[in-house]
Design brief:
- The two termini are 29 Å apart.
- The protein is α+β, with helices and mostly antiparallel strands.
- The chain contains 5 helices and 11 strands.
- The radius of gyration is 22 Å and the shape is flat.
- The longest helix has 35 residues, at 132-166.
- It has helices at residues 109-126, 132-166, 177-180, 187-193, 195-207, and strands spanning 2-5, 9-11, 15-18, 22-25, 38-43, 49-54, 73-76, 81-90, 94-98, 103-105, 169-172.
- Strand 2 and strand 3 (15-18) form a beta hairpin.
- Mean pLDDT is 88; it is low at 69-82.
């Protein structure tokens, strides 16, 4: 990764100008809300490049959305409005079970890709060190892991966004994920679920 300060880059409609490098074509995931103060160019293990901009945002509360199903409503005198409350129970058979009765299926993304990952690992181990074939097989393995990571991140973002916008109060069990991962029988399944990342994303979105 490399970081450029405000005087070393400029943003254009379809490119970013970087000092001593020139114009680099980019695909913006969303428009920048304000003038960026810096940009960090990051290269991952698969050879993909990402531009991460630092921008300032005004503090505002995100709007909530109504659920379609009927839910228990509790009067909240402090807020002078009705607050929707929901409890979240994390698991492995189901990713989570809500107090409303809804069960969110566990996608088990790493498990679905495990056969291909094991095969790629075996092929990489058989390749000669520092050979071009080894480099290609190493890139193949990295792409498989990156695909699982991207799919898991997409799933967690969509789920946490829905939970944060449909509820005004959320309760989640306080799990010691680091301790649970030490159980060799469950470590792979727990890591595949991404509980820690789920709790981090949920808290960040609830703060908004």
């Amino acid at each position: 990764a490399i970081r450029f300060a405000s005087n070393a880059f400029s943003v254009h409609s379809q490119s970013v100008y970087l000092a001593k490098i020139g114009h680099v074509k980019v695909v913006f995931s969303r428009p920048l809300p304000s003038e960026p103060s810096s940009v960090t160019i990051i290269k991952d293990t698969t050879g993909r490049y990402f531009a991460s901009f630092v921008v300032s945002l005004p503090t505002e509360i995100a709007p909530t959305t109504k659920r379609k199903q009927s839910l228990p409503v509790v009067e909240d005198d402090d807020l002078s409005r009705k607050a929707l409350r929901c409890g979240i129970d994390l698991g492995l058979t189901h990713f989570c079970i809500l107090s409303t009765g809804e069960k969110v299926e566990n996608p088990r993304l790493h498990k679905k890709m495990l056969r291909k990952i094991k095969l790629a690992n075996r092929r990489l181990a058989k390749a000669k060190k520092d050979s071009n074939r080894r480099k290609k097989r190493k890139l193949r393995l990295a792409k498989l892991h990156a695909k699982v990571k991207d799919q898991r991140t997409d799933f967690l973002h969509k789920l946490t966004t829905r939970l944060a916008t449909e509820n005004q109060s959320l309760a989640i069990e306080d799990l010691n994920v680091a301790g649970l991962v030490k159980n060799h029988k469950l470590s792979r399944a727990i890591s595949d679920a991404g509980w820690s990342n789920f709790k981090t994303l949920l808290q960040a979105k609830c703060d908004k």
